[in-house]
Amino acid sequence: QVQLVESGGGLVRPGGSLTLSCTASGTVFNIYAMGWYRQAPGNERELVAQITNRGRTHYADFVKGRLTISRDNAKNTVYLHMNSVNDEDTAIYYCNAAMDYGMEYWGKGTLVTVSS
Fold first, then answer.
1. Which residue in 18, 27, 23 sits closest to 6, CA to CA?
2. CA nearest to 73, candidates 55, 99, 100
3. Which of 14, 89, 95, 104 has the largest CB neighbor count within 10 A?
4. Bridge partners (DSSP) listed for residue 95
5. SS3 of the chain: helix, strand, coil, percent, to 5
6. Tens digits of residue pLDDT in 85-99
7. Contacts of 66 (CB under 8 A, 6+ apart)
8. What is the pLDDT of residue 60?
């Protein structure tokens, strides 16, 4: 099993920046990809960005270069760097680990609120 712990959420002003972190523990050697999803009030959970264990990245269309995912394999940690945030970025952000045997694990989420 894999445990995921997110951190870094909070209140940020429109146009500001924020970095989220997610650290994995447990059987991390089976992780194929890690990613960030988000769920805004009244909406379904959606993919934000994903990075494989080889560093290949995939972004949702709405990211538009404002959000960047990175990974520190030595620390088993994935980051989401958020720049030029706007109101639509307000959501609970969830860390996800996709295993090479098909299962997925989720963190409990961290809340990002964009407000002036």
1. 23
2. 55
3. 95
4. 36
5. 10, 55, 35
6. 999 999 999 999 999
7. 82, 83, 84, 85
8. 95
